[in-house]
Write a structure and sequence with these properties.
By secondary structure, the protein is α+β, with helices and mostly antiparallel strands. It has 15 helices and 16 strands. Among the domains are: 9-168, no CATH class; 171-263; 398-444, SH3 type barrels (Roll), CATH 2.30.30.60; 455-544, Alpha-Beta Plaits (2-Layer Sandwich). The termini are far apart.
Length: 570
């Protein structure tokens, strides 16, 4: 029976938790608690190495020596003690409570488990005899705990542990639990076998499905792949799905079996709570991400819309549909790229705070790490980027121009932010870094061509015995015969040097198409030789030492002489 003035609340099992008990005589209750504590003082103090005088006198132990101790009954946590009581350290309080519970359970039969409010805390009793005391020092008030709530929770946990102990002694109930465990294990094995059969059936079905997909023009909009690659990919997906189902089934089976037996039931409850807590956390986190992701989506749509407007505008400028200066038209493409890049950077900066996990320390650490990697490894890229801007805004080149960069000559294919591509007359595609382009001299044969065409020039050296007017006329005649040179403005000849042994003449003519410069120059050289041979004038290039005994020129009848036939072998 409970003490006088107690009121009880019935619970399941043989034990009753009395949560709202108030002593009418506090002094008597205090004396009872002190007597109960002193009765167990000597053996507990001896185990802890504390002298009996310290317990009787109640001299406090240093707070730094106190460590929390948890009372566990039948593998179930009841309460955690954080402070000493009447000289008992937390570990001593746990041992005394365990001993009293074991002693009382040996004689308790249908007695009430009650929690009573007493001076200095709450006392848990079984059949009117005290088990342990919970004091305010055992409660984490800063963490939001309340003494009364902790006492009620301890009483409920102890009541459940005691009922589970009685359940463990019931042979019929344990037999049913063993049968349920065996049945659930059999069902689990059957489920694993079914999953294995399903996996094998899907693997066979994937062959036909992969062959059907491989015959199409594309798979999900991607480049066509062979059946073997599709089968390997789908098999991995099926294996992953069946593996996840098998793990979920194993987890559920383990939780169910552990909860069948009283001693392992706390473990099963913890596993089940962990799974449910994880699922709830994932769902709550996902739902919490929805507003931020919605804002990110809105920012993405707005930035994409603005970038499309900017792209349409600059494309109109590039195509000459807008009445703007030529300098603006030529720099429209790099300006469009810069504006679009800045818009996307602005969008990322605006969306960053709304990204899931952007405020976590891990996310910040990854961001710093990526920024450090970019800053250390992108110095060369930044230099190429700036060189590309210099090239584009200087308007030295543009796609379609025929240029000479160093030893490379060809048509400009594209101007990139990092490099420039040109195609030579031998169909070679050369990628030139922009930093090299900025530091090299560039000849543009197209930019100044205009209506007159760019000038193509070549030089010959002729002896002083040939009249210079005749040389001028022969060179002009060779230019007139050359295909790809414009008749107007007419070609002209300059005498660039009067050397010791010969005169240097330079022929200048206007090209029709700058990209055909090598072929036109080759044809011009051939025509110069033909005209000079027709008139019996020898070309003294590259060196002249003395007059030869005969004229060094090729008669016309030998211009088209067939090659000599090699002698037959043997």
């Amino acid at each position: 029976m409970s003490p006088e003035g107690a009121t009880g609340t019935p619970v399941q099992g043989r034990f009753v938790v009395n949560a709202r008990i108030r002593f009418r005589r506090p002094v008597a209750a205090l004396v009872a608690v002190a007597a109960m504590s002193l009765a167990a003082a000597w053996p507990i103090a001896a185990q802890q190495g504390e002298p009996p005088s310290a317990i009787v006198s109640g001299e406090p132990t240093a707070v730094s020596r106190l460590e929390p101790a948890t009372l566990v009954v039948n593998n179930r946590t009841i309460v955690t003690f954080h402070a000493e009581l009447l000289g008992f350290l937390p570990t001593g309080r746990v041992r005394a409570a365990e001993r009293r519970i074991e002693d009382l359970l040996a004689t308790a039969d249908g007695r009430e488990l009650a929690v009573q409010e007493a001076p200095g805390g709450f006392l848990l009793t079984l059949g009117g005899r005290g088990l342990f005391m919970i004091t305010p020092a055992d409660v984490d008030e800063l963490g939001g705990e309340r003494l009364e709530d902790v006492a009620r929770a301890a009483a409920a946990s102890l009541d459940l542990a005691l009922r589970e102990r009685l359940e463990a002694r019931d042979a019929k109930r344990m037999t049913r639990a063993v049968g349920a465990a065996v049945g659930s294990t059999a069902l689990f094995l059957v489920a694993i076998l079914l999953l294995r059969r399903v996996y094998r059936w899907l693997r066979e079905r994937l062959k036909d499905l992969a062959e059907a997909w491989a015959g199409r023009a594309s798979v999900w909009g991607l480049t066509v792949v062979g059946p073997d690659e599709i089968i390997a990919m789908l098999r991995r997906l099926v294996l992953l799905g069946t593996g996840i189902l098998a793990l979920v089934a194993a987890y559920g089976w383990l939780v169910f079996v552990l909860e069948l037996f009283p001693y392992t039931r706390p473990w099963g409850e913890e596993l089940g709570s962990f799974l449910l807590g994880t699922v709830k956390l994932v769902l709550a986190t996902t739902v919490g991400w929805v507003p931020g992701l919605a804002v990110v989506a809105v920012i993405f749509v707005v930035v994409r819309f603005i970038t499309r407007l900017v792209t349409v505008f600059f494309q109109a400028v590039e195509q000459g549909k807008a009445d703007l200066p030529e300098a603006v038209v030529e720099t429209a493409q790099p300006t469009r790229r810069i504006v679009v890049a800045l818009l996307w950077v602005f969008g990322v900066v605006m969306a960053y705070p709304y990204l899931p996990g952007s405020r976590s320390e891990a996310f910040k650490g990854i961001s710093v790490f990526i920024g450090l990697m970019i800053s250390l490894g992108a110095s060369g890229v930044v230099g190429q980027f700036l060189s590309g801007l210099v090239t584009m805004y200087s308007r030295a080149l543009r796609p379609g121009d025929y240029v000479r960069i160093g030893d490379d000559e060809g048509v400009v294919l594209s101007l990139g932010m990092l490099s420039t591509k040109i195609r030579t007359n031998k169909r070679e595609e050369i990628n030139i870094p922009n930093s090299v382009l900025v530091n090299s001299a560039t000849k543009n044969y197209t930019r100044q061509a205009g209506e007159d065409g760019v000038i193509l020039y070549t030089s010959v050296t002729i002896g002083y015995d040939t009249p210079w007017r005749q040389v001028h006329a022969m060179l002009v005649e060779a230019a007139r015969r050359t295909e790809g040179l414009r008749p107007a403005p007419p070609p002209f000849v300059n005498q660039t040097a009067l050397s010791d042994f010969y005169v240097e003449y330079q022929l200048n003519a206007h090209l029709e198409r700058p990209e055909r410069r090598p072929r036109t120059l080759a044809a011009l050289h051939a025509n110069i030789q033909d005209v000079f041979n027709e008139h019996g004038v020898q070309i003294l290039s590259p060196h002249y030492e003395a007059d030869p005994p005969a004229k060094v020129w090729v008669p016309k009848e030998r211009w088209y002489a067939p090659p000599a036939t090699p002698p037959e072998e043997g």
